[in-house]
Glutamate dehydrogenase
Amino acid sequence: MNTVDEKLQPILSTVLHRNAGEPEFHQAAREVLESLGRVIARHPEYSDEALIERICEPERQIIFRVPWIDDNNQVQINRGFRVQFNSALGPYKGGIRFHPSVNVGIIKFLGFEQTFKNALTGLPIGGGKGGSDFDPKGKSDREIMRFCQSFMIELHRHIGEYVDVPAGDIGVGAREIGYMFGMFKRLNNRFEAGVLTGKGLVYGGSRARKEATGFGTVFFVRSMLAVKGTDFEGKRCVVSGSGNVAIYAMEKAISFGGKIVACSDSGGYIVDENGIDLELVKQIKEVNRGRISEYVALRGGNCHYVEGGSIWDVPCEIALPCATQNELNGKNAKVLVENGVIAVAEGANMPCTPEAVHLFQSAKVMFAPGKAANAGGVATSALEMQQNASRDSWSFAKTENRLEEIMTNIHAACHETAEEYGASGDYVLGANIAGFVRVAEAMRAMGVI
Ligand SMILES: NC(=O)C1=CN([C@@H]2O[C@H](COP(=O)(O)OP(=O)(O)OC[C@H]3O[C@@H](n4cnc5c(N)ncnc54)[C@H](O)[C@@H]3O)[C@@H](O)[C@H]2O)C=CC1
Ligand SMILES: O=C(O)CCC(=O)C(=O)O
């Protein structure tokens, strides 16, 4: 396993102590600190003036009550969060997650990762993340609307196009962004299009934002495969999840000749040896908001559903974890390696445990960390902000071309940085260092703030 340089150990100890009981944040911080030993050996100036300590401490954390009234006229209370992690490169930028597992540690790890991811895009965006422990599963459309409105009644005073620009994440898509944007507009009496991204096309959204994270992940994998002289053509792919990221990763992988044989949701996974029928998955998930288990009866033929279990037991050459954090552990990684996986890319944020990452890297499996591989979503959000600022609306092709170019550049930056620091092929190290250096340069220029 990798280790944290002894000069950085006290910083890690402070992070662990100051953020007790937040294992996901510890995991994310440790991984970045493991990469930084080589940077400070070459650039000791980056550890001056407690720069790394400051990078590990969020600029602001907001926790608030979200009361709302359910369909039975009962008052419900949830907790809302926004962690404004780092604004050295631009306004805080990052999604909002609605899921019962949300707590301050989860939002903090996501905001931390977002800071380096956003830096990798090369666009002027800082890092932040928000969310609530609200569970959208089984809620009526009216309940979702009332919850989103109440959430925004507090959040609106903390955000703005030059301050903090939230977007979607797990449990938050165009419907929820619409309800939140509507309430923001009413509270502020201002049509501030750039305050949220992931908006509907008719009121300032960007073409290709919905597709961007999944498409971007597959663009990244294509570049990674090209380094080894190969491509998607005819390769078996397994994609976990069947939400926004998973669906559009599957779409782009299929368009590059990949064969998707399995996908999942939190209940279980489906295997379809004829190749997943993506239009059917979209109908079940995007239109009906149903369960992936419904696929089997609707599709018929040679496919089956496995309740619970591990989707990583399905043999594949390319694995794309696109559901949630720590969904792929060391045991799963071992099975994937034994079954001949050649590339793994994190469409989700931190879906692979440190043990899994270590196993992939030791087995020389190409491994793309989320902060690089899934940066296409936030990059396209930044393109949405550009369109809003210039009161313009780009074509799908123009937006997708920009996305492709950005992902190609991110791949190159990670690859070249790993080479430069003597760790050829280590995309984790490359992404951490390339992202860190941009944030660090901006922070140094701005003094101790
Ligand atoms: N939406 C975006 O633009 C971006 C999302 N991400 C990350 O991608 C991941 C997925 O997000 P979205 O697709 O937006 O969310 P989503 O809400 O559209 O879909 C989430 C999917 O994951 C599944 N899932 C959730 N918990 C699970 C579990 N414990 N086991 C198996 N499946 C589970 C859900 O059933 C659903 O299919 C998250 O880690 C998110 O932070 C990263 C970058 C951008
Ligand atoms: O589009 C955005 O601003 C945020 C996307 C996001 O939440 C992520 O990259 O994890």
About this structure: The pocket of NAI (ligand 1) is lined by residues 95, 168-171, 213, 241-246, 264-266, 322-324, 327, 347-349, 374, 377 (CB under 6 Å).
